[in-house]
Amino acid sequence: MEKKKGMRTETLFKLFIYVALFALAISIIIPVVWVFMASIKENKEFYGNPWSLPDGFYFQNFIEAFVEANMGDYLLNSVIVTTLSLLILLVVALPAAYVLSRFKFMGSGLLNSFVKAGLFINVSYIAVPIFLMLLGWDSGIKELLGEGLFLNNRFILALIYASTALPFTIFLLSSYFETLPADFEEAASIDGAGYFRTMFSVMLPMAAPSIIIVILFNFLLFWNEYILALTLMPAENKTLPVGLLNLMAAERAAVNYGPMYAGMVIVMLPTLILYIIVQKRLTQGMTVGGVKG
Fold it and tell me: Which residue from 214, 216, 223, 221 is spatially nearest to 77, judged by alpha carbons?
């Protein structure tokens, strides 16, 4: 009797989970599909039934978004900033995570504590201090060179993106490095490989799954980041999220909704394509470093 009751409870729990997941999926899919449909509608179609299918494929919305609203330039800026951010992040985070996870030295515990403390710092809280610091540096540079350097600079924005992502990245990579057996390092040492050769030739290839996960997570983070881009890029070097806000304001004022939704699609499409391609790896990445060998 108790066994039947337990099975019934488990069945009801699974049913609840499936219903909740289905409702969540619908709540996400419907808005995304609606935006894609709206992006190919003519402006007059928005005054009828909002759920009606498009009369045709009105690609002029995308042309207006790319050309008149400069979304093409913003897309290029986002590609440059995101690529630079990932390169800087990997160059710094990979050696740091390897050393902190595989070696014990004076101050290593303190450094690990600092890295973990960085996980609790929200970028939104430090955006204004970062801006004021760069503004002060810019004022000093202008007195010497007559031109600012630190604001409206894609490399500086990429450097700040990478810096703010370091705690999470080092923590995730360190957790994975700790799961790798020491036998491979000992074998490399016997063969005469130094620390750098061991790291690059042995340990990093073994850590490829976690490195891929780090790249994917941080790509989504950098691509969609808004607060720092809005604060530090006030002129022509805006990224896609900031450019989208300007496009939405302009088109809403002009009561021209098609290009506005086309801009949303331009922002969403790369992340959607990436997520579809690497969905399994992202799911596996949630447990990276969770089990030690």
Answer: 223
b/e sequence 141-177, b meaning 16+ C-beta within 10 Å: eeeeeeebbbbbbbebbbbbbbbbbbbbbbbbbbbbb
Each residue of 256-268: pLDDT tens digit? Answer: 778 888 888 888 8
Intra-chain end-to-end CA distance of the chain, in Å:
41
Structure letter (DSSP) for residue 255:
T
How many residues in total does the chain contain?
Answer: 293
- The CA distance from 151 to 234, in Å, is 8
| pLDDT given at position 6 | 61
Q: What's the rounded Cα separation, in Å, for the pair 66 and 259?
A: 9
Alpha-helix runs per DSSP H in the chain: 2-38, 60-67, 71-102, 108-118, 123-145, 154-177, 183-190, 195-198, 204-206, 208-224, 227-232, 240-253, 257-277, 279-285
- Which is more confident, 129 or 195? 129
Separation CA 211–CA 90 (nearest Å) = 8
What pTM did the predictor assign?
Answer: 0.81
- Confidence check: pLDDT of 155 > 80: yes
To which CATH superfamily is domain 68-285 assigned?
A: MetI-like (1.10.3720.10)
Closest C-alpha to 173, from 191, 199, 193: 199
Dihedral Cα 230, 231, 232, 237, nearest 10 deg: 20
pLDDT for position 81: 94
**Vertex 34 angle, CA 33 and 37, to 5°:** 85
Give the pLDDT confidence score for residue 218 in this predicted structure: 92
pLDDT band at 113 (very low <50, low <70, confident <90, very high): confident
For the chain, give every domain's residue range: 68-285
Q: Helix (H, G, I), strand (E, B), or coil: what is residue 214?
A: helix
Q: In degrees, to the nearest 5, what angle opens at C-alpha 127 toward C-alphas 124 and 132? A: 160
